[in-house]
Predict the structure of BRCT domain-containing protein.
Amino acid sequence: MGHQDESFQLFDQCKVCIVCSKDLSPDTAHQLASTLEENGGEPVVYESPADFPDLAEFSHIMSNTIDFPEFDAANEALIPVVKPQWMQASLSRRKLANPRQYSPDPRLFLNDVVVTCGDIPEGDKDAIIGGVLAKGGLYNSRVTQLCTHLVDLSLDSDKARVIQERRLSVKIVLPHWFDDCLKLGRRIDERPYTLPDPEILRAAPDAPIRSTESRDIIGASTPEPSTLPTPITSPVKSKLNVFHGKVVMLSPDLGIGSHLQKIIAELIKEGGGQMMSDVSKATTLVCRFREGFAYRMASRLNKDVGNLSWLYHIMTYNTWTSPYRRLLHYPVPRTPIPGFEKFKISLSNYIGEARSYLENLITATGAECTKTLRQENTHLVTAHDNSEKCAAARDWGLHVVNHLWLEESYAKWKLQPESDPRYTYFPRRTNLGEVVGQTRLDKSALESLFFASEETPTAPAPAASRKAMQKRDQNAATGKVLNSADADESVVSDATNVTPKVRKSRKTMDSKNLQTPARARLADGKENDTPSSTSSRKSKDEATAKLHEIAPDIALYEKEKKRVGGVIYGGRRKSDEDRVALNKKRTSMEVHTESEGEETADTKRQKKSKPAITMHLLITGYQRWVGNMKKEDADKRQLRELGIMVVQDARKCSHLAAPSVLRTPKFVNALAYGPVIVQIDFITQCLKKNELLDTNNFLLKDKEAEKRYGLTLEQCKASAKKNKNKLLQGYHIYCVENIRGGFDAFKSIVHANGGDCNLFRGRVSYQAQREESEDESGDEEQSNKKEIYLLSSVSGDHQKLWPRFRQLVHNMGKTPRIVRVDWLLDMAMSQKLRACEEYELNEEMAEQSEE
């Protein structure tokens, strides 16, 4: 009896709205509702097109998708959205499961994964478990029926044998699969990583990679569709009803004819909706561009704002989806992403609709999409880097990136750094076409850049442009079509009239989206004693504040639309200094919070309690950590508690720790930034005494090496400060492919010192000439630019390249110099330029070395 009683009480405090969708049928929803009722819950089944019930009533929303109109509102009100598996997991554990592990949010892309680990190193195991939990998955120490993946290196482990003997449907994958998913921030196909015969271990380097179409971009590959859709309807539900209760406004900027407008209007009315030319009364705005009064008003009031492609998509599938979900379902700006206007981008290894989608996306960014790859291109966007096109692009010094760079730059409307490892990573046997179209628009970035509101009026616009704005906005509000002269005026005036966002940052909102606490109440009903009451009170206050904030806009619109002159409003210009600074500050903050990944309130509290970082330390040659990842992680945590942040990137280091003067890439790169150089014992002693020691007592002294390399560390530091990473500015250096030490190491050293470094495979880039014409440098730098260098050795396979290099450089009107790597290393370490003559290589030297 006690057991049944306990079972009955499990969902006693839960009122759950179950959302039907194409992935959750009404029959399944009612079965779930019955189970909830049996265990004390109070379910409500919501089936489109009925009106969505009041969110405030519910403790949870159960859905297989986030594509329902109230998802954002639920997130902001801290109401957890869970998949049906949440209920089953809660029942099996006899307690409410953590809702975050069962979120349908695609950003938690491993939330269908329950992982267990076989015979893999402890460090790898910890990393995989941490990554899976952070991205919505679960870990189980044993093999159970719930497990979906076993991470192992072979089929010889105990867990692998259990899975084979019991014939469990558990995929046995190499750790590389998780590594690649986490590096990309997307879930890719497991097949190339699956034991017993993983493709990534057996496939030849030049074997073709299978291409896979992405389902996410079907019907979302262009912002301007050319044909009307054909609805996909089932025999049971043949009538279009997606517009039930919706009031749709078609913006004049769509530029569609009266005949097509009439057809769309009929389809919307057949689907239960209405047409309206007044944005204040509409629930949905369909427009082409991110501009104009109607766009800004609808966006500020959280109405659905999408483009014609989005409208056709929901007609086709008879299912509402968020216009933020797919990049090209949302209106496009008229101006390029800052910086993209000078880019020429080519595509490689994407096929079908994915290729068409990326071509349209490149155009939408303001860049030029070229059908063929040439030396004047700036970027190659590729699905994998196993092709001649990629090799040529690298030879020419172009940026070679995957489509995530393009998508995320567009989503945030800000150029993302091409050097970010996620954008330059290509899993060996995966065609990244399979994850095209999964990036969502960044709503907070859109708000701050395109429809931010403010309460403080600024200086009014000049009379002529104000008149144009009044006319434009009156027309926009009433649905009047602009003639071409009006349209031109509208573009000019709108450029001066985008207002920046000055209200509270969405950082708090982002953290709410990431942590969805259960709203369980205390048994005695003292709601005020629970943490959730504070959260709900806070969210109500924020909602009220938001209403107060937009109330003046609504009142002003209602008042002004009655006037003959139309709607009047002021606005801060795009060129205003404070607008630019504010946007820079916000966007960098948003990028930072996203890159940090999901955080709970607890981890935030811990971060606040940590001491301030007083030192960014780069470490090279620390033997204690070699092969002992667990100790390395523990030591790094301890150092962080002392205010020392261990970094891997020389650009970020203020201090360098090394056992002696070394020629490792880390050491040589760091010298260009003039860090304080300490003995490796500094780390050992800080850890031992558990305190931050004075670096002056641990300064590195290595007279023997200083004499050997002809330098002193003090002079190096002083020179580096003076050089400001421009020691090799104007130098164009090439490197043979199989150079000892590796091309990447030498490339990083050249770049750290401001030079340009490329791989030499028998071609020379004309980028050097382009850069030369763009730069206005002094005579000394100009003389440097007349020489082009090749880092080489005297080995036979390197010598074969020398005649070709000389010929190509002479053709460019330059002087070829073939040198030992010591020339570069000696300059980078001493931070002083050196004549290349004593380092030059020629055929005579090669012959002497052979003798």
